[in-house]
Amino acid sequence: MPTYGNILLRQDENGAFTTARRAPLGFTDGRNEAWLRDLLADNPDLLPIEEVDPSFAPLLPLCTELQTEAGPVDAAFISPTGRLTLVECKLWRNPEARRKVIAQILDYARAVSQWSYADLQRQVATATKREGNVPFEVARELQPDLDEAAFVDATARSLREGRFLLLIAGDGIREGITGMAELITRNAALGLSFGLVEVALYQFGERGLVVQPRVVARTETIERTFVNVREGGTSRLHEVVDDAGSEVEAVSVTEDRAWWEPITRINFDDPEQEAPSYRPRNHVRVSLPYPGVWLTAFRSMGEGVCGVFFTGAKSEARQVLDRLNEEREQILAELPEGADNRRSSGQPGFAIYAQFSDFASDDECREWLAQQLNQFVNALRPRLKAMGH
């Protein structure tokens, strides 16, 4: 966990400094949770969004006290791409408050994920006492040429998928931070991004107040993977994102699960390999015998592309790829032809893709995906198992 020194203010040209006095929230000048909520809502740039998850930036204040079935969200923000950030403000005065706050903000997220865009528009209008399409109007203030239909569709997808950034902001977030961070990381599978932000206050006597936000914990962003799709002599990068930030197709979870169900029942050559598990939406995951890495089979209806790639949590995947790339030529010889790509970082990875138009039917596409998964398992699983011992 990061630590910080004192803040100094230079008083005059002679080099004299004044040391700021730490001004805890909740003790003086009415600086309570409501004060912190309004401070962040009025000054969204205080929240270090780029350090937590830049895909939710920039933060545009939507409203405070957004009413949900689980209770009121302290502050809600939206981005021009329709992504919601929910902020809960807490003073860290007792262990019970620390334990409850994560469950509380998760309940808010689950409640909001049940909303349609019309529900969001209605609740924001109620909170702000404004009429009309308030979320869109807020976003259009930053981007005057923003298309309303596209914004509404993007926001509706984010709501449907529960793709939210949840921030817990407070003062003196120190004791118990390890346990809170672990709880946050375990809940990352919900498709949510989390961050803990300490808002430190320093008083310079009569000269004013300094506000210093600090990110003290966050979920680790899963590295994005790109495959190079070649068509008609041209090429383009197609992004494949596992779990965090994936583009959602216009198909229900039920329909999507039914499409992938035959693949979740395939038998691998390796008798120890577990079957693939469905991950809403548009992909399945195959566990591997090394922590933090896995195989993903995906399909993107919008791009007309499907494929298989090796990925994982950012730090683990990079470490494992460094070791696997020492045997790169041998591994590629064991993988299906064409199983070669470079990730967004330029680092060589292992992936293969195909166009939907290459297949005569969905069954043929699924059979191809199953074959690729089997070969990837055969090539990578023994090596990863050896790494884990």
UniProtKB/TrEMBL annotation:
Return the Gene3D superfamilies for the record: 3.40.1350.10
**What is the protein name stated in its UniProt record?**
DUF4268 domain-containing protein
**Which species does the entry assign this protein to?**
Halomonas tibetensis
